[in-house]
Amino acid sequence: MTTLNYHFSDIRRTVALAASLICCILAYPQADSTSTVRATSYGVGYANVLDTYLSPLEYTGPEVRAIRESIRHVTIAHHQVLRQSLFQLNVAMLDNQAKNGSEIYLLANWNHTWFKTLLTQPRLRVLAGPQLAANIGMLYNVRNSNNPVQAKAYVNAGVGGMATYQTSLMGLPLYLRYQLSMPLLGMMFSPEYGQAYYELSLSHDWSKNLCFTSLHNQPSIRQLVSCDFPIGKFNLRLTYSCDLQQSKVNHLKSHAWSHTLLLGVVKQFSLTPYSQHPQ
């Protein structure tokens, strides 16, 4: 009974903190600007994945990743902020070191961040702000006949940081950017050690499968380093992604580390408010 109460206390605490964050962000009206920047990038890289629910071994292999970003200036409580929506989808085909087992890893991640400018210089700009994130995916072990799949589902509230710098190289204008995302608290779904998914489907008590997460059991970080540059009529983006996701809940360890190089296109456009449309 003590353990059950502890889990419910964690759930209530996480929900209350997340709800408070959302209310603080959305409590004031937002007036969107008409200028929006969108970028879509695709790339390949390397992934290292471990999940002790399926196997005690690490699996490594190539990864394919797509990133879709949308940025717009908005006003919240009379303060100008930069609102970013970032969606990432990555798929990895993995093998163990002995090459006698394979896994397929799939994860979709959505981040929504509100950046406030902390420092502005002629070429340098530093920003930071609150962030909400949702992740869903799965890890499939081809070799396992019993419990071959591990579901991935977790939500987080955290912080995001960004630094931008404008420069040029041999007359070519460059827009450099570094960005990080770090979860501070959240909720993660996880079966218990040795618990089969069919047992979950028969159970009416999932309190032990919804785990409170913070820096002590989910020390994770996502980093992006990008360079925007014009080529002809196009603005291209070269991006390096360092995605380090790891957790230890319900006596199960997992990590998904990846390093990916991406190339994409950046577009900037303006939206005409409805009131300004010709009648």
Descriptive account of the structure:
By secondary structure, the protein is mainly beta. Helices cover 11% and strands 66% of the residues. The chain has two helices and eleven strands. The chain has a ten-stranded antiparallel beta barrel. A hairpin with a 3-residue loop joins strand 1 and strand 2. Mean pLDDT is 87; it is low at 1-7 and 274-279.
Number of helices: 2
Secondary-structure element order, N to C: HEEEEEEEHEEEE
Categorize the overall geometry.
globular
Report how far apart the termini are: 67 Å
> How many runs of DSSP E, i.e. beta strands?
11
Structural class: mainly beta
Question: What is the percentage of strand-forming residues?
Answer: over 45%
In angstroms, what is the radius of gyration? 21 Å
Describe the sheet with the most strands: 10 strands, antiparallel, barrel
Mean pLDDT: 87
Share of residues in helices: 10-25%
Key traits:
about 280 residues, mainly beta, ten-stranded antiparallel beta barrel, 2 helices, 11 strands, about 10% helix, about 65% strand, disordered C terminus
Topology:
Layout: H1 2-26, E1 35-51, E2 55-76, E3 79-96, E4 102-120, E5 124-141, E6 149-169, E7 172-189, H2 197-202, E8 210-214, E9 221-231, E10 234-249, E11 252-270
Antiparallel strand pairs: 1-2, 1-11, 2-3, 3-4, 4-5, 5-6, 6-7, 7-8, 7-9, 9-10, 10-11
